[in-house]
Design goal:
4 copies of one chain form a homotetramer. Chain A has a 7-stranded mixed sheet with strand order 2-8-7-6-5-3-4, with helices on both faces. Chain A is an alpha/beta fold. Chain A is built from 14 helices and 13 strands. Chains in contact: A-B, A-C, A-D, B-C, B-D, C-D. At the A-D interface, helix 1, helix 3 and helix 10 of A face helix 1, helix 3 and helix 10 of D.
């Protein structure tokens, strides 16, 4: 079986693993106070235009999301998110567990608009009973979204403008940031991401690392005592250099961008195969996740050789499924899959 | 100015106040361990068919809501509510502050259906990733709803059946319970409320008391250490007998039901006046809250003599407003208002 | 039976009750936005030297404590308290429930010293692992303490200096503030309390009101969105004017100070009776709470006519018990008790 | 510089790293649903006498502690711990952040006794105001303790008996479990640990793994929806097999026990060197952590070649410091250190 079900089903990029092996018998200071974390932060900062950005390395995405969000908010403040946002639908209510309401704005393709956000913020501002409602203070976006779609630079700038107008933080979940930046349709760079947002993270888990998310806090307001928040929330790895080292390897010579771009290209080969077959997309994506609408017989046929993710039954005869490429996908795997797609009845 | 803006703008029913005055120099045990709380609980239980029901007296509605909900749930569990539910829209995120997500189901008139609830519960049951999502474990209804509408006995029974099928608790917010039971369109009694639900409360604040909500826990599972939950959440009044005494006076001879029924009848007089004038209702209600769509000029005219609640601007020329009667409304106030409604241009 | 067990076993001072009766049929705006709350705040501010102080009326003490504390702190911050402090021993862990650790400093008489506080703050400041420990950010004192003892003006100023030096807030629980200020041994005024602290409250529940605590936030940093915190924590009374009105009556002509001073004087009569009898004090107090060490036979004898609070069994033959006077205690009650004390064998 | 400052300053045991390398290009299911987690759980269960034990793999110790504790407790329940316990002193208040109070019992050597625990539990049981205090429901022990000391089998059995008598859970923090079991003074086995407790974990981070803690829930009451708790608290690793694989390698042939025992033996060589030099111990330990009282000059001398952990300044001329061995310590490192100890003036 070949797994296209997600982008976290294999270990780490060989260069990452090799670095871990080479340093395995070295000894380091604990809890992220070590040279590798420092060097990794420096490498990441090179891609930004924000020398004052604080970089912290956390283990996983859910952890990164609720740690940033709960550190940023006061108890009466809340989060604006697409109703498809990972924090709203797949994190076991971790944000609410930290005490904060999510304003889930309707979205079909995983994106929300500046206008939607402004309307929600305006509702609070013009409310006559502000103490009876929560104050939206942070906007959560995913880049790429959970459906593989992308915000354009203009969309991000508009959203950023709304956030600044209403005094809200913009936080970008970059679990799949590499795949977003690497897309043939992307018109934003890491510098743009840093410029428009107050906080974001570069996902490692899905983009070549064994695990790890590099949280970048560009807004100094969010930097205060952040290590205390990490520790209290269980996100401070004792052997923190394992995180720093991985990100150093991924960012030093741009490996992070190279391997995710390649995965996007592989995904485009899958996309093309489905298009040629006139199999419809549930949502059109130009990144490593492809959501297609398969007939039951097609689904069963492909399931004989491939693992892909079942999303939703659409009607008696059709379902939405996801095919996912990653930094570990090979041309051979793509060739096999695209041939089998073309061979579908 | 005559206030029709809400049902909590005056003190207490004279009988309640008199009882407070008469006992003012008596001394009692603290924190709800006193004869009045005991007697009040007994009086309330007479209306139920549930001798094992536990009755606790809390000060306010928001407090009652989050105390019951957070006592009932484990951290990974969540609440199903109408998106118009008070806990979702007017309690500053108190339920989320206690750590729990709300599944807000769409509703126009304040009500949700058994089918909606079942669909939401089913989503969890059939999910392949249960540990990534919260488990809906409690259904929150308001009776009357925030729009003055009523669930019928059949609707409540259907919802109750769904709750039992999926192992969920049914909790009924009865801040306006009296006005619900007293409506000319109601086909349920307090006995029905107790039978279909696992917990509910009889609102005092809006129904004749100075303050206070009588929480009734019919399901023994919810009774364990409930006083600890009350205390921890700041809801345990030192002079608890003040609550017990008020509810004793209200329930002993059915005063609670009598005064709220009267308020409903007053509301029907207002309703009739608007109907005669062909002023449309935002939502049709047969209880003490009347939501009408007024033209700007009508709104300005009435605002000269009456305080009513502005709800929402509907278009350039129309707004939704609420007129509210209560146990303290008088026939004279109604006569004045209905005459002025009839006199509108 | 005559109750000396606590200072909250009777209703309200007659003047308070009368005011409630006189305004009972008036109608007011909800949630503390009404003329009585405004006027009461003004009256209280007259006793301070702090025109910018914000005054909020909450229902009870536990609620006031955790609402102020959780509003003041960030998640990684903690509270310094005597290990006898009410928040540490009698509030069902409400502060921890809000997410904050309490540093419980050893105390025998309910008081802690500036030196103890400074040492605890210094521990954090000099720690090499700050992100692994919580930051003490608020000092909680009770005035009078849970043992009826008093801080002198000098002690309060020293503590205040330590707090300012280490950037910590000073919060004074004034559930029994009146009894503290009214003591023959007190050398502080309400003005001093306001000057040395960042927040405090004037207890109503134990000092003449039916219920209610007037929270005074002298430090503007603590004032932001405080009404949102109150509402979210269930402390916002719908009929807020009931609180404002009571405090207006109590503070307008100094009634608050007069009735608590009287109760202190009554307590001194009890104290004298025990002294004459050479019955030892568990802790010497010059306020309305008297803690004495009784022999079992003495305890049994007095228990035939009086309700008092059992505190602790000290040995096979002795126990610590509390006698409490209040605004509602009468000279007749005192005469009876002191006679019976003198008659003990 | 040779690091003796802690037991987490190097990567992983070579066998662990090799296993990671060998499986790096294999693909697996996510979130701990994979063959390695299953096999590792099986291997661990072989050491227990508890076939129904649930085994979950979390990333770190703080996370494991608060996840187990908050999953086990209801909001009004609390934890008993030594005042030296890791959860009380070095986890940034994570347990309180989850809403639970810690009863910190005095301890000099890191241990608490069955009698201390029983007394604390008894206080709750005999309290007349149970709803005003929290209910101690879980006892937290560390094995080895934070000072390297050990509970004997008899001590554990006595504590376990007290826990069962009072209906409390016993949870053992096994971050250094291997070093405890491997001590020449230990008289307990993993089977004993499982028998006396309701939950415990086998630390990986400090005992040969790159990271990871294997939480074992022997009491079925604690097993319900535990994966939901893990996910909500950010402890569910996407590539969960990385944890399973490491524990499989460590437990399959007893490597875990072998390498920690070796580290204990190394520590005994250090202990002997200090003893010969008549340098006093702060606390006597027979495990991998050695706490000694050094003169300033001795400390400075050793600090030229070795990194060790400064604990506490004892007086002008003496400090308590910690020397720590681990699975990665070599005989050469020990020889160098012991020679230098012997060479101290």
């Amino acid at each position: 079986m070949i797994r296209f079900n997600n982008d976290y089903n294999r270990g780490a990029h060989p260069a990452v693993l090799e670095a871990l092996a080479q340093t395995n018998s070295e000894s380091y200071g604990g809890y992220g106070i070590d040279p590798w974390c420092e060097k990794a932060a420096e490498e990441i900062r090179k891609y930004l235009d924000c020398p004052e950005a604080a970089v912290h390395f956390l283990v996983g995405g859910t952890q990164a999301n609720f740690t940033v969000i709960s550190a940023a908010l006061r108890p009466y403040q809340s989060v604006i998110s697409a109703d498809t946002g990972h924090i709203h639908v797949h994190e076991t209510g971790a944000v609410e567990h930290c005490g904060h309401k999510i304003h889930a704005l309707p979205s079909r393709d995983g994106k929300i608009t500046a206008a939607q956000i402004a309307a929600e913020a305006e509702k609070y501002c013009t409310s006559g009973v502000q103490e009876h409602i929560t104050q939206p203070k942070l906007v959560y976006l995913s880049f790429t979204t959970e459906y593989g779609t992308l915000y354009s630079r203009q969309e991000l700038e508009e959203i950023s403008d709304v956030c600044r107008k209403y005094g809200m933080y913009l936080f970008i979940d970059g679990a799949r940031l590499g795949y977003g930046l690497g897309s043939c349709m992307a018109d934003v760079t890491l510098k743009d991401i840093a410029r428009v947002s107050d906080a974001f993270y570069c996902g490692g888990t899905k983009c070549g690392a064994l695990f790890g998310e590099a949280v970048v806090l560009t807004n100094p307001e969010l930097q205060d005592h952040f290590r205390s928040h990490i520790k209290q929330n269980g996100g401070m790895l004792a052997k923190g250099w394992l995180l720093g080292l991985q990100f150093y390897v991924l960012f030093k010579d741009g490996l992070y961008f190279e391997i995710t771009k390649k995965a996007d290209e592989f995904a485009m080969q899958i996309k093309k195969a489905f298009e040629e077959k006139e199999i419809p997309f549930y949502i059109e994506s130009f990144t490593n996740q492809q959501f297609v609408v398969l007939e039951n017989s097609q689904m069963e046929k492909l399931a004989q050789k491939y693992v892909f993710e079942f999303e939703e039954r659409l009607d008696d005869n059709h379902s939405c499924v996801r095919f996912c490429t990653s930094w570990s996908t090979t041309q051979e795997e793509i060739d096999a899959l695209t041939a089998d797609i073309r061979g579908l009845k």
